[in-house]
């Protein structure tokens, strides 16, 4: 493949940021399932022992949140809903057949939904996690609030796991997406097909920089 046919979609710092978030999510999600379901207690061994899991689980969650916040400030302006997103949503049946609809920018409506759902879930997880975090903060809160926080934390965790599963499925479904996050580049053909407006914007910037 010609080098000129490659388009940088994610820089090295962006990819590192993404994989730190993904790694911490894996640690927190797997150990969290071990806490939640007695039959899955063995999953807590992802940290070595169940005792270590109880200590390190919240720290993994905090690192995940901090890493995602960096991603949030990088990408939030690319994830604002516009008219093209409404068209995309109305034609979801075509999207399911791997057809592209509308003049999509850097991210399509589905990706934007994943982005906003993730930040909402993470905010709920952080807030509820602080309330139930023993031995550091839980003693400062009344028992009824801790019980409510446990429910919120559990529901938000399940919701985030579902959101990430959708994210992974979509990345596998659209050929070339994994390459973008592993190696950082996509082909011109991929960009034209899946994100035409983003492709045009990149070309316009390149043309201006060469003038």
From TrEMBL:
Cytochrome b561 bacterial/Ni-hydrogenase domain residues: 9-184
Chief localisation class: membrane
Keyword Iron included in the entry's annotation: yes
Molecular function per GO: electron transfer activity; formate dehydrogenase (NAD+) activity; formate dehydrogenase (quinone) activity; metal ion binding
Required cofactor names: heme
Annotated SUPFAM superfamilies: Transmembrane di-heme cytochromes
Membrane disposition: Multi-pass membrane protein
Residues passing through the membrane, by range: 20-43, 55-73, 113-133, 145-172
GO biological process, one term: formate oxidation
InterPro entries referenced in this protein's UniProt entry, alphabetically: Cyt_b561_bac/Ni-Hgenase, Di-haem_cyt_TM, FDH_cytochrome_b556_subunit, Formate_DH_gsu
Coiled-coil region list: none
Alphabetic keyword roster: Cell membrane, Electron transport, Heme, Iron, Membrane, Metal-binding, Transmembrane, Transmembrane helix, Transport
Intracellular or extracellular location(s): Cell membrane
Keyword Cell membrane included in the entry's annotation: yes
A GO cellular component annotation in the UniProt record: plasma membrane
Family from the record: Belongs to the formate dehydrogenase gamma subunit family.
Protein name according to UniProt: Formate dehydrogenase subunit gamma
Organism of provenance: Mangrovibacter phragmitis
Organism placement in taxonomy: Bacteria, Pseudomonadati, Pseudomonadota, Gammaproteobacteria, Enterobacterales
